[in-house]
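Record Farnesyl diphosphate synthase, 257 aa.
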Amino acid sequence: MRHAVLGGGKRMRPLLVYATGALFDADEDSLDTPAVAVELIHAYSLVHDDLPAMDDDALRRGQPTVHIAFDEATAILAGDALQTRAFELLAAASVSADLRVGWLQSLASAAGAAGMCGGQALDIDATGQLQSLSDLERMHALKTGALIRAAVRMGALTGGAAHADQQRLDAFADALGLAFQVRDDILDVESSSAQLGKTAGKDAAQSKSTYPALLGMDGAKAKLAELATRMHDVLQPYGQPGETLARLGRFAVDRAH
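=>
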């Protein structure tokens, strides 16, 4: 479990919890639990995604994946334990019952059949097939975007954001999740394994549809620019207080790994 969680990474999802909570003046200490929980869910998903039955990857965050460093059975159990630990932390948090339920509902929905698990199932089913752009976007909205949306939503809930603000920030999170994946697809083509800290060229080797494959590299980069504009437009009404979220959006678009 420590190998999966403490071995580096961007910590994008917990940062989104903190940045969104700060936008609504949430108590910073109260954001720690959802921030940790969302990172544990992300780590569990990577452990299971890397298994031979899934994406079959040997490198993650510049080090051997859990099933390579240990074995497949240990990796499965570690992923299961990380997932349940996330919900254990949320359930035990010293906050109002309404906030606890909101956190749990947001994260459970993002992690299950309506989120990451559903997206991974679509990904496996589409391997070796040419997907339409709309199918590709739907898959990534579930596989990648759902947990990003949950991170933003949990931060907003902690800060007591109004329903209209939650909906506005859902739109930001949706654009961010898609931008993160488009950038991933571009980097998978343009970068080396050493630069990425994971296996480069894997999507092409597994005959998976990607944004560069469907749109061409120029088209994929234009899509990324469009998503950057969308994120900027959503956050513009918040002015300077929204700048931390805006920086995270720019990071997703501009990152080198």
